[in-house]
Amino acid sequence: MSPKYAKTFGFTEMLAYWQMEANIEPKKMKIPENLVTEYTTKDWREVNAEQLEAYDLTICPRARRKIIRPWFEQDQSYTRVAFERNQNIVGYCTIRVINLNRLCTAPFYAENVHVAEQLLAGIRGMGIIPNFQNFEKIIFWYPEVNKDVERLLQKFAPDGGFSVHVDFRTQFTKTIIEARDEVVYAVSCSVHQFV
Length: 195
Prior knowledge:
Layout: H1 2-9, E1 13-14, E2 19-24, E3 40-43, H2 49-59, H3 65-73, E4 77-83, E5 89-98, E6 102-110, H4 113-125, E7 137-143, H5 148-156, E8 162-168, E9 171-172, E10 184-186
Parallel strand pairs: 6-7
Antiparallel strand pairs: 1-9, 2-7, 2-8, 3-4, 4-5, 5-6, 6-10
């Protein structure tokens, strides 16, 4: 679709790398032992909205306050926010139920793989998602430049319960909107194809 979008709709600016799709089977997921304990997670409702918006602006330069809350409030969406010891936000993760008995991480940002582990363990381990084991898969759409996503999945599915493949390119009309893609473990929405 890249040439068609460029020619027909003017989406001529493109990132140099692909967006990947990773799938993990919930029934094969295990919470790893010995996770780093310097990070804690909270339900997003317990977090100051201005602090969350300020963190989000470090990921994407667009003010998204009006869309963050609807992401989190969607029916069957589950969100945790990660903090370091001094209570600075270092990531957040939303997992939502989508069609065909699947789950989707969207969005999922973490300053490092240890933060990502705490967020995923917080949602998975706390029994937040009803009937978690019965879902077919969890989908992650993420920038190819974040090599830690596969490390994360290997830790949670050590017996090979996940797969990764190239999925799509991100295209823009006039200027590429820069984002810190190295901390993006899942984009906000594959339809928008942007952080």
